[in-house]
Amino acid sequence: MMTCNQTWPEPIVRVQALAESGLSSIPSSYIKPCSQRPTQTTFTPQNDHYDHINIPVIDLEHLSSGDQVLRENVLKQVSEACREWGFFQVVNHGIDHELMKSAKEVWREFFDLPLEMKEELANSPSTYEGYGSRLGVKKGAILDWSDYFFLHYMPPSLRNQAKWPALPSSLRKVIAEYGEEVVKLGGRMLELMSINLGLKEDYLMNSFGGENELGACLRVNFYPKCPQPDLTLGLSPHSDPGGMTILLPDDFVSGLQVRKGNDWITVRPVPNAFIINIGDQIQVLSNAIYKSIEHRVIVNPIKDRVSLAMFYNPKSDLLIQPAKELVTKERPAMYPPMTYDEYRLFIRMKGPCGKAQVESLANKCD
């Protein structure tokens, strides 16, 4: 069983409250070292020279069609995106656009509630479930310019709607419906990845514990406007520690940046698309054929942002290790067996740390 500090090392400050106080400069605890700040070399949609750069966009419409050629083309696009980017967007994914819109709207309404109402749901490092403003329990850490709400969705035994906000009144119903649909989408994506890796189509799902035992949790991110966006980040560089992330981004304000080589590329969300990325656990299971990718979030001086990240994870006590079918003499196992519970403790103690965790595991197999 995972153990972690029961309390935060310092008093929690809500970033939204800071932003709404009208301050013109941010506290020193949010100022990143010079090397970690957003720079002018970042490629954004406003930089005309790099306007054509974006993560792949994949239309899933033909997956269920009877046309094998069209289906194979979708599989090929997913394979290339997983190998070359670790990030891609999907459209025609089968999830109702109105449900997606409602999910963002109810959470924006939650973050607009009076602070004292949100504080009743304040979280702790022991589970992270609830209303939060920091990741990691390292005292004196440089903090990110964001608040969030974290909740467990799968397995059903961990789903406790009593811990979900009661206001707005439609939130629990909307998120129950939204979670069900996104978890189904995650299952379809695991199937495609398994096939593309040359494994049985249910391999990754079974490695995660099966449909009823896999882990899924939702983190709703709120990135308030920031008077000095060039000095801080909404979320520090990291790769996701779990299996796969399905992100519902803000349609109107870009913020997610993906590392491509030495560059940071700002993702331009496609309307009604989900952004999917590979996590560390699929990197391990695929023996690094698929790699998790470092990403971060920049903040905006004028507008705030809301995004919903569904983390699709292995059952916490299952050993995760490279698939034996992907281990050869030429490509030996690159990672030792480890449970997801053991793995994520690193993140919960130290917060986002680039790809330090998964790379440290690979070193143990040298």
UniProtKB/TrEMBL annotation:
Protein name: Uncharacterized protein
Source organism superkingdom: Eukaryota
